[in-house]
Amino acid sequence: MNKKFEKLFEPVEFPSGIETRNRFAMAPMTVYGSNDDDSIGKEDLDYFSVRNDAGGLIITGAATTSKDGHNMANQITAYDDKKIAGLTKLASVIKGKGNLAILQLQNAGREARATQKRKGVAYAPSKIEFPFLKYVPKELTPKQIKGFIKDFGEATRRAIEAGFDGVEIHGANHYLIQQFFSSYSNRRKDKWGGSLENRMNFALEVIDEINTTVENYAEEPFVVGYRISPEEVHGDNIGYTVDDVCKLINEIIKTGIDYIHLSMSKYDAIPSVGGNNEPMATTIYKTVDGRVPVIGAGSILTPEDALRALDYVDIVALGRAVIIDPDFVVKLRDGREDEIETSVKDRFDDLHLPNKLKRLWTKEGSLLPPLKGLND
Ligand SMILES: Cc1cc2nc3c(=O)[nH]c(=O)nc-3n(C[C@H](O)[C@H](O)[C@H](O)COP(=O)(O)O)c2cc1C
After folding, report:
1. Disulfide: which of 108, 187, 299, 329 matches 112 by Cβ 3.0-4.6 Å?
2. Burial letters for 298-321: b for 16+ Cβ neighbours within 10 Å, e otherwise?
């Protein structure tokens, strides 16, 4: 290994006592490899079998925790016990090279397009018309909220039974947990909405439920991480600022979480509003103050980017970099960084990507982040 990159291969220990062998995580990516009956598909297994050394921590794409919060057809799901057999195969493939397998848990809330298609309804903290949605979501009742929280616990139990090393709570990217924290999306007047403290309640109860499940079912230490978007700004509508997020993160850390994972399009992004005009990752890193490791994602596309990102966070998450080159980390470890591919030109069909993902990436007006070389 080139000495310059050695820091990237140091182990990191989580509060639960589990150690990850290097400072790379594979970012969670929904790749649509599951079967139409929502079970793990051959394409899911194929995608991970070539990427199971893409980081010490391998995080799956979002797995649905509740059938009524189902984002997209063909994503991973964990909403009933019938899914355990497939999840067991998935965990085993991911752990094949000795890295940690983490199942990301998601309820999509208002973005539950698969639920909307099946039932004609999607649920959210508040019934609001959103300019970016073709339908108006239905407001969750307090009983339904409790049910969704329980479902996160049940999905965690399934992850434990399937042999995963941990779960990551998807509190980012505008899905249900973020919708509760956002003052733009959450207009409730009960204990789940209103003040900043009340808007934290859903996230904190989800973590409590998961922690209780881990205590009851896990026979070995089990990682519980939390992914968060550092700010939410929709034009003039501010859901929350990075300063608000720091307050939530303080509460999250008190629950004994293992890591905080920042979801950004660029790892050193500056806040749109609030903050001190310093990168959001820096503001958050100072708040966390070494209590738990911080993971950062966003446009870390080369080994040099990865090294620079370590100025902001403890662990770097690779998304598109390991779509483009599944062996990014292995090549770097072996001193073969010159062989890392940074473009998909003439290689797109050889990357072991599910067909649906390939279609979504190549269709006109694709909403996915660009892949270098795809349209050359
Ligand atoms: C195809 C695709 C699917 C994604 N799915 C998820 C997901 O399921 N959960 C999540 O938290 N982020 C998801 N993301 C966001 C990535 O985890 C990551 O934050 C983003 O791609 C930025 O990192 P990158 O610049 O290294 O690609 C997805 C990104 C891509 C490209």
Report:
1. 108
2. bbbbebebbbebbebbbbbbbbbb
Backbone angles phi, psi at 248, to 5 degrees: -65, -45
Write the pLDDT tens digit of every residue in 179-227.
999 999 999 999 999 999 999 999 999 999 999 999 999 999 999 999 9
Question: Does ligand 1 have an atom closer than 6 angstroms to the CB of 62?
Answer: yes
pTM (predicted TM-score): 0.98
pLDDT for the residue 175? 98
Element (H, E) at 179: helix 176-181
Domain ranges of the chain: 3-362
**Catalytic residue at 135?**
no
For a substitution probing ligand 1, which of 29, 44, 175, 361 has the most ligand atoms within 8 Å of its CB?
29
Measured in Å, residue 259 CA sits from the centre of ligand 1 at 18
128 φ/ψ angles, rounded to the nearest 5 degrees: -135, 145
Q: What is the pLDDT of residues 273-301, one digit of tens each?
A: 877 789 999 999 999 999 999 999 999 99
Fold (CATH) for 3-362:
TIM Barrel (3.20.20)
